[in-house]
């Protein structure tokens, strides 16, 4: 059974491993085979040609080689990300602790045995729009830009189930996207293809975050013309890592600033 998270169970990353500031990332679940961390936006899980941000694979292994006690006691011979999660997305990041586990877990992921549930905010659609649908456009990496594009001729298979969870009179919607396998930028590209691009996703045409004044029109104090949120409003909330094993279901609460925005938009408690 995976260990449950607590405030003291976290791994530190001094600069410059994951950027200019020190980070301490909570351990949200752990077994003898793998470790799940709460990934913040701004860092990647592994190196990728599109990304310039630091990655967690390199940062974990650097500290393991240097003999950091909080990593040595986890009895890992290496750390390897099970799947790629691009830097803009927050949520569950899973790392195998040895080569056998890494091969096994990546095989489960590549075979579509796992299950992933994302949540994101988009601008509200016109009245009468579908509240749930399946996106199945094959995806192809753009030959110039760091993005994916739909291509029936050359794209690779990709499937995403979308479900609208809530809609606000303030003009925003909260969506759930579920997949059993995902390619880089898949949720972002499929959402954009169905005209619900993720809020803050300039690469795929997402709406800008509303200002504080737009969310609080009755307030008159200074400073309300600033954006209410910075970054991509997309979060990996749940991962079922091993099929049929309830103890391998990993949950990760949205970052505090995203939870606050959801409440202020009238999309949740």
Search tags:
Alpha-Beta Plaits; two-stranded antiparallel ribbon; alpha+beta; 2 domains
Number of helices: 6
Overall structural domain count = 2
What is the C-level CATH assignment of the largest domain? Alpha Beta
Helix content: 10-25%
Largest sheet: 11 strands, mixed
User: What is the string of helix and strand elements?
Assistant: EEEHHEEHEEEEEEHHEEH
Share in β-strands:
25-35%
Q: State the low-pLDDT regions, or none.
A: none
CATH fold label of the largest domain: Pseudouridine synthase
> CATH homologous superfamily name of the largest domain?
Pseudouridine synthase
Summarize the structure.
This protein is an alpha+beta fold and 269 residues long. It has helices at 56-65, 69-72, 99-110, 186-193, 212-215, 256-264; strands at residues 10-13, 23-30, 34-39, 80-81, 90-96, 115-123, 132-135, 139-141, 148-150, 160-168, 172-179, 234-240, 249-251.
Question: Would you spell out the secondary-structure blueprint of this structure?
Answer:
Elements: E1 10-13, E2 23-30, E3 34-39, H1 56-65, H2 69-72, E4 80-81, E5 90-96, H3 99-110, E6 115-123, E7 132-135, E8 139-141, E9 148-150, E10 160-168, E11 172-179, H4 186-193, H5 212-215, E12 234-240, E13 249-251, H6 256-264
Parallel strand pairs: 5-12
Antiparallel strand pairs: 1-2, 2-3, 3-5, 4-5, 6-11, 6-12, 7-10, 8-9, 10-11, 12-13
């Amino acid at each position: 059974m995976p260990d449950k998270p607590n405030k003291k169970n976290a791994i530190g990353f001094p600069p410059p491993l994951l950027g200019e500031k020190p980070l301490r990332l909570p351990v949200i679940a752990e077994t003898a085979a793998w470790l799940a961390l709460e990934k913040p936006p701004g860092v990647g899980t592994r190196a990728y040609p599109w990304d310039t941000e630091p990655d967690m694979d390199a940062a974990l292994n650097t500290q393991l080689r240097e003999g950091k006690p909080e990593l040595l006691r986890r009895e890992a011979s290496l750390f390897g990300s099970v799947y790629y999660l691009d830097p803009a997305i927050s949520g569950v990041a899973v790392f195998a602790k040895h080569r056998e586990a890494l091969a096994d877990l990546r095989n489960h992921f590549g075979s579509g045995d796992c299950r992933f549930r994302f949540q994101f905010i988009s601008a509200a659609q016109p009245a009468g729009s579908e509240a749930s649908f399946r996106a199945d456009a094959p995806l192809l990496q753009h030959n110039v830009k760091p993005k994916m594009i739909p291509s029936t001729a050359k794209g690779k298979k990709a499937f995403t189930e979308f479900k609208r969870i809530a809609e606000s009179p303030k003009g925003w919607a909260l969506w759930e996207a579920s997949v059993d396998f995902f390619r880089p930028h898949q949720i972002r590209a499929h959402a954009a293809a169905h005209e619900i691009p993720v809020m803050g996703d300039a690469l795929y045409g997402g709406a800008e975050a509303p200002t504080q004044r737009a969310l609080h029109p009755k307030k008159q104090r200074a400073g309300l013309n600033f954006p209410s949120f910075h970054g991509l409003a997309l979060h990996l909330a749940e991962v079922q890592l091993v099929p049929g094993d309830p103890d391998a279901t990993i949950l990760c609460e949205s970052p505090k600033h995203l939870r606050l925005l959801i409440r202020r938009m009238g999309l949740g408690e």
